[in-house]
């Protein structure tokens, strides 16, 4: 749990489920009785001040294009490298991967995974299912919308949940990624796992 009681959170605000993530983070602050000021980020200068950062679901080709145009691409990378917690959902997961299998997505290369965009969506546009997630006591109501599948993971990725035999929630140190949309439910446990139960940077190396 972060030490400061006055926290700053950012949600990459160029496109997608921005307000839903902002609401979830606000409710999480109320739950923990800490003050969290939350920003929708479309310009440089705010990310370095953030204690929490989320990249929402939406359209990965659009998010990729706009984070490059606005110049926040390299700020997101610096933030992630600082070890502070980052939550990336659906299109956010695609953009954060090392390979999105799509030349229109300039990936951030933060998660050592290869993504298959719209992998589940070709069969079913959207679905909700109760998912067992490592770290959560009870199943999580996972909403999938044209969801990406994680096809290849490197050994430093921890798989937290699978659906149809594919990883759909993963963690790499301070970064938690989901193929589904925790921001579209009232359940705060994925946001809590990402931001308040985040392993300390390089904790694996310290063991
Ligand atoms: N299919 C979308 C993409 O490739 C992601 C869908 C979502 O974020 N709900 O960007």
Explain what the structure shows:
- 25% of the residues lie in helices and 31% in strands.
- It has six helices and twelve strands.
- The protein is globular.
- It has one domain: Rossmann fold.
- Residues 57-60, 90-91, 94, 117-118, 145-146 line the site of glutamine.
List the helices and strands and how they pair.
Layout (H helix, E strand, L loop, with lengths): L5 E7 L5 H15 L2 E7 L10 E4 L4 H11 L2 H9 L4 E4 L1 H6 E3 L11 E6 L9 E6 L8 E6 L3 E5 L4 E6 L2 E7 L2 E4 L10 H7 L7 H4 L1
Parallel strand pairs: 1-2, 1-3, 3-4, 4-12, 5-6
Antiparallel strand pairs: 6-9, 7-8, 10-11, 11-12
Bound molecules: glutamine.
CATH superfamily caption: Class I glutamine amidotransferase (GATase) domain
CATH architecture: 3-Layer(aba) Sandwich
Question: How do the strands line up in the largest sheet?
Answer: 2-1-3-4-12-11-10
What small-molecule ligands were found?
Answer: glutamine
Features:
single chain, 207 residues, alpha/beta, 7-stranded mixed beta sheet, 3-stranded mixed beta sheet, 6 helices, 25% helix, binds glutamine
Summarize the structure.
The protein has 207 residues and is α/β, with parallel strands linked by helices. The chain is built from 6 helices and 12 strands.
């Amino acid at each position: 749990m972060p030490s400061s009681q006055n926290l700053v959170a950012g949600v990459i605000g160029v496109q997608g489920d921005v307000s839903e993530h902002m609401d979830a983070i606000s409710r999480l602050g109320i739950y923990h009785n800490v003050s969290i000021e939350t920003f929708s980020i479309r310009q440089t200068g705010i990310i370095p001040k953030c204690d929490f950062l989320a990249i929402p679901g939406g359209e990965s080709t659009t998010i990729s294009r706009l984070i490059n145009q606005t110049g926040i691409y390299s700020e997101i990378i610096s933030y992630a490298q600082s070890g502070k917690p980052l939550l990336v959902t659906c299109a956010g997961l695609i953009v954060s991967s090392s390979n999105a299998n799509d030349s229109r997505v300039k990936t951030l290369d933060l998660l050592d995974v290869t993504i298959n965009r719209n992998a589940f969506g070709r069969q079913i546009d959207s679905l909700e299912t109760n998912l067992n997630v490592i770290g959560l006591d009870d199943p999580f109501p996972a909403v999938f919308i044209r969801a990406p599948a994680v096809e290849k993971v490197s050994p430093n990725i921890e798989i937290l949940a699978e659906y149809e035999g594919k990883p759909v929630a993963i963690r790499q140190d301070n970064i938690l990624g989901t193929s589904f949309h925790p921001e579209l439910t009232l359940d705060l446990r994925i946001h809590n796992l990402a931001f308040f139960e985040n392993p300390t940077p390089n904790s694996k190396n310290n063991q």
